[in-house]
């Protein structure tokens, strides 16, 4: 049964989450514990390292329930080094995850910051070959695609034509204040692209990457307008994917819960399950 909305974090393995999301000394079965609470996850590791070994993918398939969704990223080798000139490499990546095809959410094509309108034919060539049964989401970072001009119109029309989702990267919270000497906030501000937020759904699985601040109140304020938009998309039969980051990701699980609970107050959604680390007593 497809849930009205998928909620997830940028990863499932993070030592900072032991004692909250996970039991204090948890080292194994993290994906099982994660999937008991969250319904999706960003696959950021595949961006850097490509597809893992077949036995690792098989283990993920055993641990993740049928209604869980992995939103993997195409490897940087395909998007940044080859710049989509080898669509066969992208398709081989998808094929490596055949044991998880029933649990793949939108696979994300994160494009380089200098990937502009002149290279859109390469994106089109990839989308023309993309398997019809696997959803796709495209994240652009070139400023030309945020000017509401002809380049952005061409991009959006391309995505609509092929049923690909445009990733909405909301970096407003993380850039809302100076870092104030906070190491994690300064690092996030140095790494994330400072781009406008254009809210639009080009296909049936809108993808939101909410890059939060270390201040909960700031995050809640920027998230509030999303509530009505998410409700609208759900009422239209779309299935949004919401991924919650914080500047250093130490409190991403708690922030995701806070924002989801605010959404639940305004929409008919199932409650989030308790965190395993908060319901299990420490061993010593």
Secondary-structure map:
Blueprint: E1 6-9, H1 30-35, E2 40-43, H2 44-49, H3 54-63, E3 69-72, H4 76-81, H5 87-96, E4 107-110, H6 120-129, E5 136-139, H7 150-161, E6 165-166, E7 168-170, H8 183-191, E8 207-211, H9 216-235, E9 241-245, H10 252-264, H11 276-279
What does the model show?
With 284 residues, this protein is α/β, with parallel strands linked by helices. The protein has a single domain, classed as TIM Barrel. The chain has helices spanning 30-35, 44-49, 54-63, 76-81, 87-96, 120-129, 150-161, 183-191, 216-235, 252-264, 276-279; strands spanning 6-9, 40-43, 69-72, 107-110, 136-139, 165-166, 168-170, 207-211, 241-245. The protein has a six-stranded parallel beta sheet. Strands 4-5-6 form a three-stranded parallel beta sheet, covered by helices on one side. Helix 5 crosses helix 6 and helix 9 crosses helix 10.
In CATH, the architecture is Alpha-Beta Barrel
In percent, how helical is the residue content? 25-40%
Number of helices: 11
Cα distance spanning the termini: 40 Å
Quantity of strands, as a count: 9
Structural class: alpha/beta
Largest sheet: 6 strands, parallel
Using the CA coordinates, give the radius of gyration. Answer: 18 Å
CATH class equals Alpha Beta
State the CATH topology: TIM Barrel
N-to-C series of helices and strands:
EHEHHEHHEHEHEEHEHEHH
Strand content: 5-15%
Identify the CATH homologous superfamily: Protein of unknown function UPF0759
Q: Largest sheet, order of strands side by side?
A: 3-2-1-9-8-7
* Uncertain stretches: none
| Total domains | 1
User: What characteristic shape results from the CA principal axes?
Assistant: globular
Mean pLDDT: 94
């Amino acid at each position: 049964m497809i849930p009205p909305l998928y909620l997830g974090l940028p990863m499932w393995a993070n030592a900072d989450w032991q004692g909250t999301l996970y039991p204090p000394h948890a080292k194994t079965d993290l994906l099982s514990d994660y999937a008991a609470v969250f319904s999706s996850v960003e696959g950021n590791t595949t961006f850097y390292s490509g597809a893992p070994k077949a036995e690792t993918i098989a283990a993920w398939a055993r641990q993740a329930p049928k209604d869980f969704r992995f939103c993997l990223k195409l490897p940087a080798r395909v998007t940044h080094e080859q710049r989509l000139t080898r669509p066969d490499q992208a398709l081989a990546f998808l094929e490596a995850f055949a044991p998880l095809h029933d649990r793949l959410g939108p696979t994300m094509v994160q494009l380089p910051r200098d990937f502009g309108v002149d290279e859109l034919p390469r994106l089109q060539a990839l989308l023309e070959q993309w398997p019809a049964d696997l959803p796709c989401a495209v994240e652009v970072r070139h400023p030309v695609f945020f000017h509401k001009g002809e380049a952005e119109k061409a991009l959006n029309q391309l995505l609509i034509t092929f049923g690909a989702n445009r990733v909405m990267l909301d970096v407003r919270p993380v850039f809302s204040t100076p870092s104030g000497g906070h190491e994690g906030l300064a690092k996030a501000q140095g790494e994330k692209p400072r781009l406008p937020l254009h809210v639009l759904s080009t296909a049936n699985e809108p993808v939101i990457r909410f890059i939060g601040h270390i201040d909960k109140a700031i995050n809640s304020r920027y998230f509030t307008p999303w509530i009505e938009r998410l409700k609208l998309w759900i009422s239209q039969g779309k299935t949004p994917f919401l991924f919650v980051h914080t500047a250093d990701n130490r409190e991403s699980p708690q922030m995701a819960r806070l924002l989801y609970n605010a959404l639940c107050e305004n929409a008919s959604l199932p409650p989030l399950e308790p965190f395993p680390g908060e319901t299990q007593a420490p061993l010593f």
